[in-house]
């Protein structure tokens, strides 16, 4: 139970930021990195350079570069450095607040010189727990900034493509890079969905076992909760991607629009799958109810058959156990065998009756 | 159970394309054709020609033809040939990706020189399994391309009409041909719907049998799942056809619009029928629950009647089976018969009571 | 059961028109008229003329007439004559297809010279079966054509008004006549709704009988199905009437708009009533479930009371029926009466206990 | 039951107006006034006059008056007089039809010289029955006409305000008077809602009694029906008031718009409350189901405890009631007491077992 | 029960204002302050002044001040003083009515010189009861007025920020102050949501206890009601904030719009959380039903096992308790032991049977 409880806790909104000054930057998440680390990937058609650092100032020279620069910030605890970065890139204070507020729902904010996107990276830990990681993207003219809560992400494939110059990425601008980052995150949602499908299947199979675990109600409820959380993380993203595609922000090039429309298709597909799983999970509870009722029917039938057969027979035996002085049958020679005959006849009559009713 | 499991598996999204480079063409379906075969149908008002080949290059000369050309590609495994075709017809890389991504939901993409439509061909195999086949249509100026996963389709009637010059088709352009292809696919949805109606009817009838199979819950769940899958395949098509009809793409001639509106009517009608079947299927579970409860009521009544009649009688017999030295009744001459009288009286009283309560 | 089955069958979509050539006219309904008969009503302010014929050519002269002409076609089997009529009035081939396709859902198609409306005429047969008759209306400049599946309709009142020059009809054009036809059909929906209300009431009453018929589940399901069918026939009509009223087709005169708005109000009112009945019918199932559960509770109480009272008493009797050599109580003079006292005391204790629990 | 039945009947749509000529004025309600009575209130800033009459002609002179005139018509049976009034004020025939058709749903119709509004006045009779009274308002330039089914309304407060020159009313025009009439009707909906809240509370409390009345299902169903009826009467009014406020009809003065927006707020608030009560009422059924199931659980526990304790003990007594010649235990001196010991031990074991299971 | 009842009562709409004159100012809430107290906070970039008074006239001088002035009115009973204030600030009579009508739902009214907002302040008392406090905001050019029902609010943090010149507030105008007030109220909704999450968790845990309290149904229903009330208080606010942000009222400065959009994000987030909790709470009832059914299954199994084992054995004992003269088995030497053998064999057979069925 204690394991469950811990899981429950995570559902609650731990927004401890009430009565804050608006625009004040406070990290409210639960993942603690000791320090914030930066990863700088700078590339153009010909060259490609990667740099890791803990010092935010090392980022500044890249602003002058003619290349596309991707600055990936891991860890949101060291507020000061994020504020430094924000000041350097002239980000609005509310953006900084949203970067570190891990409760923020997916959204898009379009400013004159940059586009700001918040979304959630979802993955299952090895222990099977669903992790929801807050991630923010600032897309500028020749750069993008990404802010993650912790190390470890879904961008390894993308890093590889940049390094090996696979696909269009080295020939395209920061808008295509932002698209590729979003694409990597959304592609990973399909893994979540596949895992969820497996879970539903497992639950469904265990419903039809001879003796379903009584905890199955809790498992179904847990799954419902998980689906609700995933939905909450993913659904608002549809609106975000749609606005990105439909919007006419000058930072998004004409030819990137086709890719964004494709992304929109993917997020719609994820949403539809979630909706399907949701309906199935809700249906599981009904199935469980009929399963319980069927079991009870079976229990009742056993009781009814045993009682209906033996109670009348016991009565007959009781009658001839009475001690009246004058009970003529007791003294007939074959009475005892006649009574056995009657009792056997009743016994088989009852069997035949229950057979005909298909209870046996 | 193992048969069921296999069916379940198919529900999952087997999108193994994560971390791909966007625009990379990978076939993710499960139907394996050894080779990709092409069918070329070229016709105008007067002439008509059909050609089968495995060599994609044989298609190229037809581009110059003044006739309407329908190139039907069977099998999506040999990526290379599809890419060759795509390059020849100058298709966008994302289109090629969608052609082979069998998870892609129905959609329409309008480009300057062609319209791209993705949809699903649905049919039941002889074994009664629902098959969802991914099909893509590229409609150009004087040609249409169709891409299917496997041999066997619903176009035989259409081929026949072209050959025998039935209806308007030989007098019309590529847009009418595209309409005819869509019409053939959507007309076939009515067969699916009819089969589904039969399934619901069979389930409903078996619910009211004396002893409904306990697996009926699973059957209902399976049917729900099937309806959900069909809905997922068909619903987005409404939007597709609507955009095709409402849109003002120059490739669609004025007089084809009436036909497209008719198509839209059909797809709406299919959707409404699915919705009706969905409501009915969801209602089946409730019906099953009341059926179970009614059965249990009946079981309980039998038990209650047997127990209520014989337990008191057994008690009376028990009383006169006691061995007290002084029990005056035991020595009266007709006690035994009086007791039988009382017991029979009670017996008939109980019968009358249960009769009056309508339990018998 | 066989009666029910036949009813079920009717729910299915019997669209056998797959793989047809689009625009091909095939009657798919089930009502067979041996021949198609025509009724021609021609009137103006002063004169009024009615003619019955089987020959479609007799219609043609009326096209020249300055009067309003209503041509009512009964029976959709003789395709040839409908095609002849269609050709004469220059109807689009798709319209001819929709006229004879009884599966077509209600719709409106506006052409330059005429407006085409499809809808359903609903009535209960004397046997209480719901009949859904396909009816199409073509409204032109000085004429309207109506196509019905079979003889017998809801227009008798309207014919009477035309004949006796009641109301505005003889002073108005073809648009008002079309309105009057629609009004007659929609007014008749209120009869359907009243019958449905009676059915719900009957079901509800029978739910609260001492022993509701077990078939009541089937009856509720049947009623649900009927409501679903009616909804399917009527709901799309709201859109049709709305477009007719909002649209600015030159064939509809300014002053007819008020009448159309009134018609729209009626169809909304019908829809709302259906929605109300739908909610009530869905609620019936829940009521039935609680009814069953209450019955079971009652059954269980009888069993529990009988068993709880007599099982302990039987035990006591059993104890003094044991044959031990040394059982001192057996030999006391009043033991037997003491035991009876104890048993009666227990009996009344139990009665009092169950009385207090309000189970008696 | 007969009382209930009568209530049910009222739900049905008793629209007996089918096959009428459109625009024909027929009263279809159930409230019969022997005659139609008129109340004329004529006022301006300084003066105020009230007149009661049965003669419709007495109304005519007021049309010339510069004052605001409110003509309130009670009783819709004497069609002729309503038609006379309609002709005098040049009302469209469809309006007259709607005035007497008590089935008409709330609506607004804007004409050039007047605005026509239909709505429902709701109140509970002293017997607790919900009455739905059809009321129509025609608002002209210097007059308003109101048509009610029967005597008795919710306007006494308003009459008082006019008489005593309270509030803005005597300084405002006919549009403000129409607003005040609507406001009086809508304010009264809050009484309805309060009564409904009381009913839900009463039902909820009675659900948790020891022995809820079995008729509670019917009471819940009745309440559902009542909510559905109220909803049907009130919901369309939102659209009506919204159009009145948003519309720019010249008869509505600029400064009245703020009051109409306030009215709109009130009707939204009523709708929200109905929605809340609806959800609560629907929840009552679920609560009742769990209540029944809990009761059944309790019944079953009593049975199980009694049977589980005494059946084994009876078996032991039965064993030593057997008549075998050779049963050594029967002849030991203290056997009887040992057996009692065993039986008491079993008895207390069972008690302890059920205690531990918390069934006792 | 009486405690509950009092809670229920609060759900009802206690709108006793029917038949009032529109625009008449009557306080309808339940919180009684003996007097209305005023708090005046006046500040600019450099200076900051706070003043408490009971005399409404002390407010008037501040109107001339160039500073931003926040006038916070506590207590809505002394209508006269609120009317005085309203007259001084030239507020529309309907606004005054809404300020004291605590039943008013959240809304925004835009006037030329000020914006009027109504919303609800929600908090839990120490006794765990949810309190819904009506609060109105009038935002003018250099001032804002806030009207609360009682002392005690969620603005302490905000007062502190103004005093200590934290954040942007001292550098901004009245529009930013209004934003800050709204932000403080909405931030507090997150506390409500967290408490609600705890309540759901507690209920869920108690569902899975060995013996869930039967009152749990009432607790779930209570929680449902609470969620419904909170939803009613919060949902309309989305529209309010949205209109404030989207609207182009000259009183709202350009740079405040970003903050309002942020506020809108927060209220959407609160709404989504409520929706999630709603779904979970509704699911609790289903879980409880399965829990009850599982318990009943367990009870039935115990009964069935006990009865099925001992009823046949008792029958056997009964047979050999019969008193027939001629019962050969009675006289065999080891009959008694054979019978014990048979009975033990049956006993273990039954145990094995129930073991195999997994009922033990």
Automatic annotation (TrEMBL), chains A, B, C, D, E:
TM region(s), chain numbering: 302-322, 334-354
Keywords: Cell membrane, Ion transport, Magnesium, Membrane, Transmembrane, Transmembrane helix, Transport
Localization per record: Cell membrane; Membrane
Entry membrane topology: Multi-pass membrane protein
Principal place of residence: membrane
Annotated family: Belongs to the CorA metal ion transporter (MIT) (TC 1.A.35) family.
Stated role: Mediates influx of magnesium ions.
The protein, known as: Magnesium transport protein CorA
Species of provenance: Mesonia ostreae
């Amino acid at each position: 139970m204690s394991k469950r409880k811990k899981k429950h806790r995570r559902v609650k909104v731990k927004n401890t930021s009430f009565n804050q000054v608006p625009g004040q930057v406070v990290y409210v998440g639960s993942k603690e990195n000791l320090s914030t680390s930066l990863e700088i990937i700078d590339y153009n058609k010909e060259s490609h350079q990667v740099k890791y650092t803990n010092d935010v100032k090392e980022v500044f020279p890249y602003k002058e570069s003619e290349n596309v620069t991707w600055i990936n910030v891991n860890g949101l605890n060291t507020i000061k450095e994020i504020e430094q970065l924000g000041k350097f890139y002239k980000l609005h204070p509310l953006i900084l607040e949203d970067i570190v507020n891990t409760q923020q729902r997916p959204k898009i904010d379009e400013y004159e010189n940059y586009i700001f996107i918040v979304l959630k990276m979802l993955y299952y830990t090895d222990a099977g727990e669903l992790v929801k990681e807050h991630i923010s993207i600032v897309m500028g003219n020749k750069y993008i900034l990404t802010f993650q809560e912790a190390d470890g992400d879904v961008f390894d494939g993308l890093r590889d493509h940049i390094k090996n110059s696979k696909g269009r990425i080295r020939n395209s601008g920061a808008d295509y890079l932002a698209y590729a980052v979003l694409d990597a995150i959304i592609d990973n949602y399909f893994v979540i969905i596949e895992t969820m499908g497996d879970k539903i299947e497992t639950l469904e199979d265990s419903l039809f076992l001879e003796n379903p675990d009584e905890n199955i109600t809790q498992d179904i409820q847990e799954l419902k909760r998980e689906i609700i959380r995933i939905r909450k993380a993913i659904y608002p993203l549809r609106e975000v991607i749609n606005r990105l595609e439909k919007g006419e922000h000058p930072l998004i090039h004409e030819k990137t629009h086709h890719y964004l429309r494709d992304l929109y298709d993917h997020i719609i597909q994820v949403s539809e799958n979630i909706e399907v799983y949701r309906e199935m999970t809700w249906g599981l509870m009904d199935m469980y109810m009929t399963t319980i009722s069927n079991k009870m029917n079976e229990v009742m039938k056993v009781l009814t058959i045993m009682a209906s057969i033996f109670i009348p027979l016991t009565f007959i035996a009781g009658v001839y156990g009475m001690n009246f002085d004058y009970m003529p049958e007791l003294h007939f020679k074959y009475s005892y065998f006649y009574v056995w005959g009657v009792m056997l006849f009743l016994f088989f009559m009852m069997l035949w009756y229950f057979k005909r009713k298909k209870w046996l």
